[in-house]
């Protein structure tokens, strides 16, 4: 396994991809350590691509993780050890200040429905643009054929999809189902920071999404009704503060008044001092990605 920290070295390495086969790319942002969800991504990437590249990037921004935690040297070393055992070809570990040096001035600005959905519910406008720019840089530096994400990262996937579409970047995006603990909690290194009481409370998030699924299957297609159902289900739990609920298009994040096949139901909540995200998606063929 090759570990690359510098952008120039990663660019030079990527120039040789064409002669070696297809490249699968797994961007991992703001995770403290590897977990079973990442292992599922690695397995899928290896099944479909000859070369597997993982990027470990810690950002100062708050999207899918709490901004008051940091990736320690120990957690980075542990992640690298696990990746070595997972038959990964390249691990790219750029520092944020290398992606955004003092003189940096070229940003991707996301507008439209994505901007409306994420600002201010998930972040500030500047933070969204920085995050999108970082993801765009990674795609252009690594030059993968396929980018792999878990369904838990549906918001990040929407951002990547928009970048790929609007900038005509030749990359396919593939989502795999969320890996969950036995109690339904979506796998994340940040859930390890929850107290036992907070972990128990966090299971309500997936449960209320499943309640929405059952309601939809019984004919309830009104988004405001489902929104009220979620608020009622979570209300009163002292450990949970619901920050945002999106019922909309999974690619544009455009909100929908009526739920139809192809709709994403995504929520963001603060559980204790940590941010927890979860979602489910009603697929266009009528199945569910849970």
UniProtKB/TrEMBL annotation:
Keyword Nucleotide-binding: yes
Entry's family note: Belongs to the pantothenate synthetase family.
Chain segments annotated as transmembrane: none
Catalytic activity entry: (R)-pantoate + beta-alanine + ATP = (R)-pantothenate + AMP + diphosphate + H(+)
Keyword Protein transport in annotation: no
Protein name (Swiss-Prot/TrEMBL): pantoate--beta-alanine ligase (AMP-forming)
A Pfam family recorded for this sequence: Pantoate_ligase
Domain of life according to the entry: Bacteria
Encoding gene, per UniProt annotation: panC_1
Keywords per UniProt: ATP-binding, Ligase, Nucleotide-binding, Pantothenate biosynthesis
Enzyme Commission number(s) from the entry: 6.3.2.1
Top-rank EC class of the record's enzyme: ligase
Pathway where it operates: Cofactor biosynthesis; (R)-pantothenate biosynthesis; (R)-pantothenate from (R)-pantoate and beta-alanine: step 1/1
């Amino acid at each position: 396994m090759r570990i690359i920290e510098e952008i120039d070295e990663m660019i030079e390495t990527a120039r040789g991809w064409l002669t070696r086969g297809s490249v699968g790319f797994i961007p991992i942002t703001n995770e403290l350590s590897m977990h079973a969800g990442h292992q599922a991504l690695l397995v899928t990437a290896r099944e479909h691509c000859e070369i597997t590249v993982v990027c470990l990037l810690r950002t100062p921004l708050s999207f899918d993780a709490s901004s008051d935690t940091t990736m320690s040297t120990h957690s980075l070393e542990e992640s690298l050890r696990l990746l070595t055992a997972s038959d990964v070809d390249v691990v790219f570990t750029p520092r944020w200040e290398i992606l955004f040096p003092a003189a940096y001035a070229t940003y991707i600005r996301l507008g439209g429905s994505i901007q409306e959905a994420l600002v201010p519910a998930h972040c500030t406008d500047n933070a969204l643009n920085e995050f999108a720019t970082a993801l765009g840089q990674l795609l252009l530096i690594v030059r993968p054929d396929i980018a792999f994400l878990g369904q838990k990262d549906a918001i990040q996937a929407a951002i990547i999809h928009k970048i790929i579409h609007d900038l005509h970047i030749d990359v396919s995006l593939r989502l795999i189902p969320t890996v969950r603990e036995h109690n339904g909690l979506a796998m994340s290194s940040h859930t390890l920071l929850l107290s036992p009481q907070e972990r128990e409370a966090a299971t309500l998030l997936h449960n209320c999404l499943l309640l929405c699924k059952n309601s939809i299957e019984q004919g309830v297609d009104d988004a405001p009704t489902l929104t009220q159902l979620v608020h009622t289900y979570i209300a009163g739990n002292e450990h949970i503060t619901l920050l945002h609920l999106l019922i909309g298009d999974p690619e544009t994040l455009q909100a929908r008044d009526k739920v139809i096949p192809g709709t994403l139901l995504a929520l963001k909540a603060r559980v204790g001092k940590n941010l927890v995200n979860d979602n489910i998606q009603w697929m266009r063929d009528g199945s569910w990605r849970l």
